Every structure is written in C-alpha cells, then in structure tokens.
Amino acid sequence: MARAESILRLLLVDDSLTEADSITNTLRSTGHAVRASRLDNLPEIEQALTGQSWDLILCRDSFSAVSPRELVNTVQRLGKDLPCIVLSSGQENIEELYSVGVQDVVVMHDAQRLQFAVERELQNLFMRRLCRRNERALRESEKRSRLLLESSRDAVAYMHEGMHIYVNRAYIALFGYEEVEDIDGLPFLDMVTIEDHAKFKSVFRKFSENVEAKPQTVSVQCVRADGSGFKANIEFSHAKVEDENCTQVVIRDNDEREDVSDGQLQLLRDHDFLTGLYSRSRFVDELEVVAGKAGEGQGDSALLYIVIDDFLSIKDKFGLGASDIVLKELAEMLRKQTAEKDIIARYSDQVFTVIIASDDDELVQSRAEIYRQIIDSYVSQTNEIDLKCSIGISRISEKLSSAQAILDNADHACMQAQRAGGNQAARYQADISEKNIPNKDVTDAWQKRLQEAIHYEGFCLYYQPIVSLHGEEQELYETLLRMKDDDGETLLTPDVFMAPAEQCGLMNEIDEWVITHALSALAEYQKTHPKTRFFLKLSKQTLGKSEFIDWLCTSLNEHNIEGSSLVFEISETDAVENIEAAKSTISKLKNIGCEFGLEHFGSGLDFSQSLEVLDVDYLKINGAFVQNMAKDAENQAAVKAIIEMTKQAGKSSIAEFVSDANSLALLWRLGVDYAQGYYIHEPSDKLDYNFEDDDL
After folding, report:
1. pLDDT one-digit tens code per residue, 84-126
2. Residue 161 within a domain
3. H or E stretch at 654
4. pTM
5. Does 351 share its domain with 328?
6. What does the DSSP 8-state code read for residue 99?
7. Rounded to whole angstroms, how far apart are CA atoms 97 and 422?
8. Which CATH number does the domain housing residue 84 bear?
9. 3-state SS string over 523-534?
10. How far apart are CA 418 and CA 436, in angstroms?
C-alpha cells in the first residue's frame, strides 16, 4: 500500500551535518521526497515535536547530547505517534537499545537495512494514521446521526428490554421532563396509561418475537410527568446501538400541541440551562473537533477538567437553591476570564471543562492557575461558602483519537490532584513502563533541587569574553550559568540541569535569577569599566511571557543600568518556532535600548528565514560548524555562507566554540566580526579579560 503523503518529514537528531546529508541522500535514493531538519539538543527537539508534524526520527546512539532513551521519553511524554530508529555504531549494544523502546536499531552505514526499516515503519505509521482517521470518520457519522435525532421534531427513543437507553430532546419535551436523567432507566410501560397496558404489551410482544418484523404502530394513551395524558401513535422498529439489539421508538402526539422549534431544540442541546455555558454534549462535539485536528498534525491542545472540591457537602449544608446560585455565579466569573480561543462548558453538576488551544505546557499551566484562583477567590453572599477546586490537565495529541480518552486522562489527573490535598492542578502522565519515562522520584528531586538553587544561591555566574576580529571594538561578555553540585564545589553545566528545569516549568524563574544577578555584577563592574556589555540568554518560556519587559525595565532602573548595556539572545530554532512572540519581544527590547542576537544560527536547514523575519543585531554561528572547522571543508563552507549572509543583511556575526588557532585564523580570513571560545578565554567567575591588549 502506498503512503498517502508524498513527503517524508524527517527529524535527524545528530551533531554531524555530513552524516545528516548522507542519511538524507540514502532515503532520497529510494524515491522518498525527504524534507529533513537536523537538531542537536533536547529543548529544540521538544519544540520541533510540538510545533510541527513529523513522520520519522533518526538518531545516533553515540550522540551524547541526546540519548535514545531521552528521545523516546520526550516523544512518549508529548503523546506523539512517531517511530524512532537508532543508528548504532556497532553490534554490541543493540540489545540494550531495543529495551529503550525504539522501533528499530540499524548499524551505521548499512544503507539497505536502513531503507527497509524506514519503509516498514512508514507503512505502519500510515496504517495507524488511517485507522485513526477511520475512527474519527465513524464517530463523525455517529455524531451526525445523533444530531439528526436531536434536531428531529419527532420524539425518538431507544429501548432495551423495555427500558430507555436513549431519548432525544423532543421526547423529553413531549413527556414534560426537564433532563435526560429523569427518564434514565424508566420502563416505557410506566409512560402508558394502565388502561392501555394490555394493548401495548400485546403489540410489543409480537413485534419483539420476530426479529425480521417490519415497523409496527400502536395507538395508546400516554402519561406526561405531571400526570396529564395525550393520545399518541407509537412506532416500533428493530435497531442496534453499539452492536446491541434494541428497539427504536418514534412517538407522534395526536393532540393539537405547538411543536418545539428547531432553534429551541438546538439551544437546549448546546447550552446548560443553569449557567448558560456549553452543555456536555456540545462540549464533547467541540473536543472531538480539536482531537481530530491534533490527529491530523494541525497542533496539540490541552483539556482542563475542573472539579469543585467537596461540593456535595456544600449542597447538603446550604440546599439545592443556594448551590445553584453558586454554580451560576461561578460560571459567570470563569466565562469572563476565558481567553479568546478557550472553549468552556459545564460538563456535569460540579465539573467545568475548558479546552486551551495551545501546546505550550507553561501557558496551559498558567491558564489552569488563573481558573483555580478564580474559584479560590469566590465569595458568596453569606460569606460562609469557601470554594476550592482540583484541576486535571490532559494533553490533546495525535495518539488520543477520541474525546472520551482525553476526558478519562483529565479525570485521572484531577483525582491525583484531589488525593494530594486539592486546590491544585495536576498533569496527566501516561502510564508507561519505567524504562520509557523519567522516574517521577527523579523529576521531583530535580524540582526540589532547582528551587533550592534559585532561592538559596545554588547557582553562580561565569563569564566568557566575546572579542572583535573585524567588528566594532566592544567589551562584551557572555553570561553563563552554573549550578553547584551537592558537594558545594563541583559545578554542573547547563546540559545537565536545563532539561529537568524545562520539564519542571522553572525556566522563567531561572532566567530572572540570571538577569538579576548579572545586573548586580554589571552595575558594580561598570563603575570602573563603563563600556562593558553582557550577552544574556532567554528561554522560549520567557520569550512568550508578556510581563517580562515590564519586569526588566524595573530591574534596570533598580540597578541604574541602561538597556544598551544588554544583548539578549535565544536559539534560532526557538525564535522561528515562536515567531510572533520573538518579533514582539525583540521590538520591545529595542525600544528600551537593548540589542538582540540569535545563537546556534544555522541549526535549521533553511536558516535564511530567520534573517527575513527577525530584526536582530547579532548572529552566533552554530558552534558545531566552528569546532575544528580547519579540518572540515564542509563546515568551512557553511561558516563562510553564514558570514556572507550576515554581511549582506547588515548584521554582526559571532563565531562560538573557537577551540584552536587554525580555526581562529580561518575565521579571521573569512571576515567574521567576533569570536568566542576556550582558545580565546575559558569561562571564569571573574570579569578579568583585557580587551585593550587583544592580539589575536
């Protein structure tokens, strides 16, 4: 079976551009139209997985920056149905790699085996996607059938062994009931007058005994909820609901009664009578649409399942009337705080549900906190009702093809929040074997350790000079973060603690710690070196934080530092994947005098896009190209192309990771503006580089 998609969207996790090109060419030789991206660190990989749709991941077992286990864990955590194939350096560790959870392990440079494995996994992926599409199509068909039933002016019900298992709105209205629950489990015979019981039983028995019987009609006197009667024609026909044999019942009132209008029926179906929010049925419809989009690779979202803690005790204490008032007022408060694209509903008695149209875990967490605070701040007229809530968060991704599965996950997470004491939010984590997910104890340990580092000076700053080769003479330092190990002496580099920090949602706090301490050091150092400027890294979380610029302005004023003393930088991939946030933040930073740079420039296969859409001042060439570039002609060509591109765009180029004299000399000949690396000066906890004595 041929794949429906003509393009193979390939994610290569590798630090070697040469190997990446070799793999891409191997797959193209078999007829695949390959669109590949190469990434070499976990944060960028996670951003790529959430922001784009992929068909396959290829990684190397010898790439220490991102291990196959970490890669599989990330894919599983994000709920992506994405096959991963490992390229192994040898036969000896293949068995261990299979235990990680990858789909296959292929020895490096075994092109034929790689082609076979890729084709097999793509076929399997296509079949899984096709299965999910068919499931969604089936649910859509069933939904249309339900909508037809709901919009029908005829009263329709389904019965099994004489008991109601489904009724539409017209049926409820005809018999004078308010909710479906009022009829659930009610024997149909109870809705027929006693005088007509024998007549009804006789017709229904004959019809039931003949599974091939055509629809039968009987005229009887029916009974409404208030005890009044009406003459009705009841039509029976055989049907199936979820593969169970049952009886479809259609009732037509013979009395002269005003029919319920289509608009009224739709209003009753779509909105909760008490709160005016979306009803449960309408919300499930909306959730199915969002899940379908995620399944088609059109973006992940999140579901919040909000349960009012101990609401039954509130109802028992204050009565049904008071509790209804509370729910109505609470719904209005929640509705007013709903973001533009949020979809909110009253799912059941004390449960509200919200769809957040974002794949940003931090944004979803902040929205959940807003809703939690609204409920926590509720004040009743009597001032005696103290409300708290528990919130379950479930990611809506391609692996979850049904609304019910998403709701089940969110409900499960909500129960976790309740067991932890309530008045908090918990995120659903898939129940995968321990080998495929980070150990929760380890995650909790990192959370505690990082928070202690933030609040009790467990971090420290190092500085590395950025020196001019052809650019304007400046006194520039890159500010680098280190974390003190448990012994208080060993320092951990960011590649050890940044991934856990992102998983724990602490990047905003870490960014603020770095900026605050960097400003303190800079304010003191500028007393004797007023021209000194700092490069400071920003995370993608801070990039999208609307309050960041106001906080920065306040911090600059507190330390009496001009914005022109700072250059903020973010990785090219994070900037491009969050393009609108990046453009907005760059503009605001420039308004207060700061400059902006892109680091790891050249990471994307089409990196010219960054220069076209982002008004940056500096481009830091990806260090993977610069390291030992004197011995690698391909890396030389890449560096030369980037330098020429930056000159044409009127930007300044910076070569990072300069590790030897030959590379530095070559960079000078190629015309790079600035250079940075261990060969020039190792990172130090002191600002001690003599820029006036440069002799490079």
Report:
1. 999 888 777 777 787 788 888 988 888 888 989 998 998 888 8
2. yes
3. strand 652-655
4. 0.43
5. yes
6. T
7. 40
8. 3.40.50.2300
9. HHHCCCCCCEEE
10. 27
